[in-house]
Arginine deiminase
Amino acid sequence: MSEFGVHSEVGRLRRVMVHRPELSLQRLTPSNHDELLFDDVLWVERAQYEHDKFDSVMRERGVEVFLLERLLAEALEASEPGRRRLIEVAASEYTVGVSLVDEVRQLLTDLKPDALAAHLIGGLTVAESGLDVGALRSSSLPAAAIDDPSMFVLPPLPNTLFTRDSSCWIYGGVSINPMYWPARRLEAYNVAAIYRYHPMFADASFEFWYPELGDEGRFEAQDFGRASMEGGDVQPIGNGTVLIGLSERTQARMIELVAKQLFAKGAAERVIAVVMTKDRAHMHLDTVFTMLDRDAVTLYPKVMDNVRAISLRPGSAPGTFHVTQEKDFLSAVADALGVKKLRVVETGGDAYQAEREQWDDGNNVVAIEPGVVVAYERNTFTIAKMRAAGIEVLPIEGFELGKGRGGGHCMTCPLLRDPI
Ligand SMILES: NC(=O)NCCC[C@H](N)C(=O)O
């Protein structure tokens, strides 16, 4: 068995990457949380406690849990070129300004790997940076514009918590995702550094579905074309099929790019694009649909009853596609999985309760093995229905973690998962 690869949504989860809440979340304030895609500020110590419990639930079930910040620090420690490259892209003309590039790159270079990783995720304020703003005022516009030492030289990336989105494994390879909102775009550089330079990955063999190896320039190109894809839309359900939500965050043109790579390597033979309405409450496919078992799914009917499914298969010539409209989404998924009919657990409660539980990630569960999922305990109506359907539910607290609008599925980036 290879060391990395995700061959289903519910096969045994063996290795996963998560992110323990840290400095970036301490930077959330009432005035910036909207822009940073959180619905409130968090009690960070409690979020850490909740996250630690989540990790233990997975570890007790035999999952090997890797922490993103640790992997990043280890990658920066292990690879001098990697460290240089990440500093270059994090502190560029576009992120800090022409006049500050050299200064900021130098002060990042002086940081030890642990501190560098902490600030690449947590952000770096003027006060923390030690920049001599007074001396720079006459030669630098960004420095002259600084009027508060709590301003950011590097922005915090609080959505790093949702490791599902910035990168996602599809069968034998990974996609490092160009993300939709500016608040999340820089996350891709940190995860790219992990996959390129951490010894655990550098020594392993796997594909890069996006961007192609060594083509980090494709992230800069994104700023013009604005094609984006986020991992919360991507589900490699097994049997050579991948579901990809065509949501607020993921466009058809980006799905084609990834599908082309998958088909060229024979890694998948069908992509089912799921055309969804665009809304904050269901920004990704996995906020309204996740798998529970080989033949069971949970979904929020108000959204999923109205999606359109379109299958993409390799065309007759390399690099071309054969596209067909599906009769409906669930029968397309059942067909792809080779099951007669899927068992469906809808969001629980009356219309009000269901809408509230969807908002609190009631349908956003992560499977540890077939029929065993982790869910936020507050979603009592949906959990009751899952249990009635024979699903083993491992409840976790999520009062703080949930404020960013993501549950167990969003907070996990599976690195190794068995087929079904
Ligand atoms: N896969 C997911 O649905 N992830 C949740 C992402 C929440 C985050 N605050 C965001 O808006 O991007």
